[in-house]
Sequence to fold (402 residues):
Amino acid sequence: MATSILSPTLLAELRSESFVTSPYAVYRRLREEAPVVWVPWSEDTGQWWLTDYATCAEALRDQRFSKDIVKRFNPEEATPIDRSMLFRDPPAHTRLRNLVNRSFTPRTIERLAPRIETLVDELLDGLGRDGGGDFMAKFAMPLPVTVIAELLGVPEADRPAFRRWSADLIGASDATKQSEAGYEAALAAEASIAQYFRDMMALRRLRPTEDLTSLLLQVHDEGDRLDEGELLGMLTLLLVAGHETTVNLLGNGLAALMDHPDEWERLRAAPSLAESAVEEMLRYDAPVQRATFRWSLAATEVGGTVIAEGASVAVVIGSANRDGGQFADPDRLDIGRTPNRHLAFGRGVHFCLGAPLARLEARLAFEGLTRRWDGAAVAEGVVRRPNTAFRGFRHLPVRIGR
Ligand code: HEM
Fold:
């Protein structure tokens, strides 16, 4: 019977190295034994983990769970990213999100398709010339960073610095980096990004262009709707959220296809399946395994368990997406799966703003890849990111061909 008490063996599994590589069997046990459970990382820190689909879907929408860092902590200490929409509750969230919503609708984003197709072709040419190589370095990392940098108006010469800063920011949550050094690198990266965007805003103020930075600046300058800190938070969030997550979708998606040559063949034979293949990749091996933290604003009952006021809550998307109560044969990769109401982009007011962009990049990437190649295999030197929230590869060397 499900309880809200974690067994010592499950806690040990959550702490083990193998949880990074293979979390899905552990999630299954959690769903079966304790779908709403307090995970005590130490004597004085822990979180409630929610792992079944219905509870996760509900919690993502539940406004009794706050994400508002500014409300919870000292507003004076809030960094630009703390003040971004990802970490605010309505109505502050609504106002921030409305300012960028129009730039990210599927229709607006679809206009980027020809440019993304060109980038995909160029990057695949590079991989093809060498018969393969590290898919992360040669394809999965350069594609999203180039797209988001072009959207924001970051010149080409500055992109390597962007990649570094973004990796440092997210690296702070890598399991092996829960050290002062990791956090210092993250703070330094955030400061470098902030300074860079401040300079860019000053330049765009003098000479506006067509990019998103100029657009946001006009909203900022025409009224008092976005202050300097909010603008910085918005730009930083778009850069970080739009980068690492899509990188991981591309890497995890390719790994899934390489593990399932039949599904590769199926996509190659029917390229119109690319859209649903991407949805299945998002479900099967979600790039964001746990949503960003929420806190209960009041004692809240979830799945028969009371979560005390102020407790922190992790919605385990990666587990919800494998729940057999929602998905038939959940551990099987089925690129034609329908319906497929996965939670990889969240739910409710914080539903991923960049979903249309991530979907487009991935669709064009996998269409291109499977059109060119009849298969690929993993080569020596695979390295996973030591992170259980952002699931992905640091290196994914591949050899092209069956
Ligand atoms: C495969 C790629 C991506 C995945 C898996 C992903 C996942 C997510 C998830 C799960 C959330 C909700 C977090 C929560 O409720 O705690 C979210 C929010 C967000 N994402 Fe994404 N994301 C991806 C790509 C992108 C891209 C390309 C962009 C921007 C260009 C982006 C921008 C955002 C923003 C701004 C939010 C906050 C929305 C809000 O608070 O209203 N994401 N994303």
